[in-house]
Design a protein that fits this description.
The complex is a heterodimer of chains A (350) and B (268). Chain A has 350 residues and is an alpha/beta fold. Chain A is 37% helix and 23% strand. A 6-stranded mixed sheet of chain A has the order 6-7-8-3-9-10, sandwiched between helices. In chain A, helix 3 packs across helix 4, helix 3 packs parallel to helix 5 and helix 8 packs across helix 11. Chain A is elongated, with a radius of gyration of 23 Å. Chain B has one domain. Chain B has 12 helices and no strands. The chains are: A alpha/beta (350), B mainly alpha (268). Chains A and B meet through helix 2, strand 6, helix 3 and helix 4 of A and helix 1 and helix 5 of B.
């Protein structure tokens, strides 16, 4: 069967910057593709080109066999788009927003009204449906925005960072809704900064950085490339670091990374929890004071480190503030991981 | 719960521009009573101007007017132009706001006419202009303004003023879609309106200005329109020489700026 989204060598410049630099991928109908990458990687630019909002400088893309440039109007009848910021009219009620889009899609008054009611029910907005959207909570806004993009029953849905800035409960709600849509046959292209989100939802993941595809595959395939789990040990005394490294080398030839700032060590352990326990036991037997230890799952930064040899550089300032709460919600303290990543951000080859 | 696939309702032909434009006009109009404070302040400003100019400047300016014409009679058509021209700024602010909030992206991802969002904005803004114009005439009646030539010519005066505002709105639409946020749009749409409306016959007779400025003021479309509106209210049946330049400005503004605005909209 022909893929419902076909992207070939898309290129888009902004001034001298190549925001999207030869991106190619395909998405099969009824599946979820996760477009994963840090801020500024080119995810949103790619989606905007696929959603006919931006014209590519070169390359081509087809949705359901229709070219996004030459057949833009017909493409728009097939797609739904939900952006990072809720694009609904705040001064209209939820119902009016849905009704308006139904009417714009050519429904008559009654059809538009019925479809609005149906979507309000589905997204548990029936009680709030007749209130102006400006009175809604963040999660409700995101839900009404998603509902608006579903009015025309699109075959392909673009979700551009659907959970950025949402609290954990709203985030899980969005995930559930997305799964429902997919089980109904919708094809979803999801952009995200969070590996966990791609992991939860996507059948396949395309990793994009500096406008280029740097890897694609299933979540498991990507995780394998990061080398699995890492044991993070924090020591009481920086002076013990050298001795600790020596002790760990005695345990085997695994690669030990030293972080004098924390101070501590990172040891790749994959799924070998016994080895991890052995590391901690060895250190404490030798009298090295350990203040903390934990097993970290691969984060987006780890994937990036494995794929590019450098950290993502998303920065804790811009969005990872939310990210620490939402993307890494399992509480393993990946925030630390991001912080360290930043230290090594600069000067790396691209 | 319904199946997610299935074609959306059938697409329509070129008539969709009117249909889509109407839906988006509705969208803006339905919001008017929801921000009563905005409407209130839109109306307060012209009322204040009428009262201030009539009672503060009226005494001195009135003496330079041709005999038999009261300052209210002179001022109301002019201040009508000034007020409506300033009110078109809301087109720039409204579109910039839609752009900033991502609504323009939403509409551009829908299979609707490219001009529909602009048409919706400008049509609803024109309705607001008409409301402002009517309120101005009512306040005018309080300070002594009258439709001397009859109600018919008076209504034509209102329609002409609002039509000029409609034409101006296309400049504002181009501005609103060329800046990145509503605040900038507000300033960018505002500053040039001061020289446009003050270097004109809106508040004072052009003959009271220095010679070089008179040249500018006489050819200012705001002067041309103010004088036409005065003919409508005082004499009726204006001379072709007064009507045609105004008509040319209105048509010209739409012909130049409507395509510009639509092309901005396509590229934002």
């Amino acid at each position: 069967m022909r893929p419902i989204i076909e992207v070939e060598d898309l290129i888009r410049h902004f001034g001298a910057t190549r925001a999207v630099d030869g991106v190619s991928f395909t998405v099969d109908a009824g599946t979820v593709l996760g477009l994963l990458g840090p801020n500024g990687a080119g995810k949103t630019t790619t989606v905007r080109m696929l959603a006919t909002l931006l014209t590519p400088d070169a390359g081509r893309a087809r949705i359901d066999g229709l070219d996004v440039v030459t057949d833009a109007t017909r493409v728009r009848a097939v797609i739904g788009l939900t952006g990072q910021y809720a694009a609904v009219d705040e001064k209209l009620t939820g119902r009016e927003n849905l009704w308006m889009v139904g009417r714009l899609l050519g429904m008559d008054r009654k059809q538009a009204h019925d479809r609005a009611t149906e979507l309000l029910d589905r997204f548990r907005l029936s009680d709030a449906g007749d209130r102006q959207v400006r009175t809604y909570s963040g999660g409700m806004r995101r839900r009404v925005d998603l509902a608006v993009s579903l009015v025309g029953r699109p075959a392909v849905l673009f979700l551009d960072e659907p959970t950025t800035g949402l609290d954990p409960v709203s985030r899980i709600e969005m995930w559930d809704v997305t799964r429902e849509l997919v089980s109904d046959g919708t094809t979803v292209l999801l952009t995200t900064q969070y590996l966990e989100e791609a992991d939860e939802l996507a059948d396949r993941i395309v990793v994009i950085d500096n406008g280029k595809v740097i890897a694609q595959g299933t979540a498991d395939e990507l995780k394998d490339r990061t080398g699995g789990r890492t044991l993070e040990v924090t020591l009481a005394e920086p002076a013990d670091l050298d001795r600790a490294v020596g002790l760990l080398h005695g345990l085997g030839d695994r690669r030990v990374a030293v972080d004098p700032q924390r101070p501590g060590l990172s040891v790749p352990v994959d799924d070998d929890t016994e080895f991890a326990a052995g590391v901690v036991a060895t250190l404490s037997h030798a009298g090295v004071a350990v203040t903390d230890f934990r097993l970290d799952r691969p984060s987006l930064d780890d994937v990036f480190l494995a794929l590019t040899g450098r950290a993502t550089g998303t920065g804790d300032g811009t969005g990872n503030g939310d990210g620490d709460g939402t993307g890494n919600g399992d509480g393993t303290g990946n925030g630390d991981g991001t912080g360290e990543g930043d230290v090594t951000t600069t000067g790396a080859p691209s | 719960m319904t199946a997610a696939t299935g074609a959306p309702a059938a697409r329509r032909g070129p008539g969709s521009m009117l249909h889509d434009g109407w839906i988006l006009t509705w969208r803006n109009l339905v919001q008017l009573p929801r921000t009563p404070e905005l409407l209130l302040f839109t109306l307060i400003q012209p009322i204040m101007f009428v009262l201030l100019f009539t009672y503060v400047f009226g005494g001195s300016i009135g003496q330079s007017l041709p005999p038999g014409i009261s300052y209210a009679q002179f001022l109301i058509p002019g201040i009508m132009v000034q007020t409506l021209v300033f009110s078109t700024n809301s087109t720039a602010v409204g579109l910039a706001d839609d752009l900033q909030k991502g609504l323009v992206d939403r509409f551009r991802s829908l299979p609707i006419a490219r001009s529909a969002v602009l048409v919706g904005r400008i049509c609803s803004d024109t309705v607001r202009l008409a409301m402002v114009a009517v309120v101005l005439v009512l306040v005018g009646y309080v300070v002594g303004f009258r439709f001397e030539a009859g109600l018919g010519w008076g209504l034509l005066m209102i329609v002409t003023a609002v039509a000029f505002g409609f034409s101006m709105s296309w400049i504002m639409a181009t501005i609103g879609l060329s800046v990145r946020d509503a605040e900038t749009a507000s300033t960018a749409g505002f500053v040039w309106l001061f020289p446009l409306t003050f270097v004109s016959s809106v508040f004072v007779p052009v003959t009271s200005m220095p010679g070089w400025l008179q040249v500018v003021a006489r050819n200012n479309p705001v002067t041309l329109l103010s004088n036409l509106l005065r003919e409508f209210t005082l004499i009726g049946r204006p001379a072709a020489g007064t009507v045609l330049p105004v008509l040319a400005w209105m048509v010209g503004l739409v012909v130049v700026f409507a395509p510009l605005a639509v092309s901005r909209y396509r590229k934002v």
